[in-house]
Specification:
single chain, about 270 residues, alpha/beta, Purple Acid Phosphatase, chain A, domain 2, eight-stranded mixed β-sheet, six-stranded mixed β-sheet, 16 strands, about 25% helix, globular, binds fe (ii) ion
Length: about 270
């Protein structure tokens, strides 16, 4: 069983990068299941239904979210009409949808959970460990369990991964949009990476047009963060390879591809 998990898809450039990246990875590997973080898909914040449909056309099986889960109001309506969008499990305010779901992939049950970190995240959340432990202990068991841990702090991500070692198949960090070089298999077979990275504009600040961000962060000016839709395209993901007998993750391979933005430049 091979599963790819794609980092936060940011705006139109991110959607184009995801399409190209999925095609390339699937050409080179047998891929059984595709998960992607979709919290930034629509103009960098949230997920419109039309863009959800677009991602389905690219071959994505499941979309996880993050702190921007409700930035496009319409998701509150359609999240319950589809069966493959997972919003953060441990948000405190009432919200439609679920934070963990089981999917049938080949002959196996694959659970996917989306969790928010507690450090430097504005959303008020329940304790991430206790929230997922409740799922592990009380909900339908699965052969493979992939956790998208959407959090800011690398140390919080490492702590949760060690705390869940042996209890889930993979703890994959998202949210910071910068792919880290620490992918590994922990002692009790749980795969971990602090951050999978992102899909989007290559010469950007975490997916956003760099001058629009620099003007605000460095020079304190007001203004919107824009997305450069003509820039080259970055694709970040991890490929998880599972042992056929034990269902343990035996390898976590980081993927970074940069594509020319041909359509816009020609
Ligand atoms: Fe994000
Ligand atoms: Fe985020």
């Amino acid at each position: 069983m091979n599963i790819i998990f794609i980092g936060d898809i940011v705006g139109k450039s991110g959607r184009k990068a995801a399409k190209k990246g999925i095609d390339l990875v699937c050409k080179k590997n047998q891929v059984d299941f595709v998960i992607a973080n979709g919290e930034n898909v629509s103009h960098g914040r949230g997920l419109l239904e039309k863009h959800y449909d677009e991602l389905m056309d690219y071959g994505i099986d499941v979309i996880t979210l993050g702190n921007h889960f409700d930035n496009k109001a319409e998701i509150k309506r359609y999240i319950t009409q589809v069966d493959n969008i997972i919003r953060p499990l441990n948000i405190i305010r009432p919200y439609p949808g679920v934070g963990s779901l089981v999917f049938k992939v080949n002959h196996l049950k694959v659970r996917v959970t989306n969790l928010l970190g507690s450090a430097f995240i504005n959303e008020e959340v329940n304790n991430p460990y206790l929230s997922i432990k409740d799922v592990i202990d009380n909900e339908e068991p699965a052969d493979i369990h992939i956790v998208d841990f959407h959090a800011e702090s690398t140390s919080e991500k490492q702590c949760l991964a060690y705390a869940l070692d042996g209890l889930v198949s993979a703890v994959l960090g998202t949210h910071t949009h910068v792919q880290t070089n620490d992918g590994k298999i922990l002692e009790k077979h749980t795969a971990f990476i602090s951050d999978v990275g992102m899909c989007g504009s290559y010469n950007s600040v975490i997916g956003f047009e760099k001058d629009s961000v620099i003007n605000k962060i460095i020079f304190g000016k007001n203004g919107r963060f824009e997305i450069d839709e003509n820039d080259d395209l970055l694709f970040n993901a991890v490929l998880l390879k599972f042992d056929e007998e034990s269902n343990f993750c035996k390898d976590i391979i980081t993927i970074k591809e940069v594509f020319a933005n041909e359509e816009e430049k020609n």
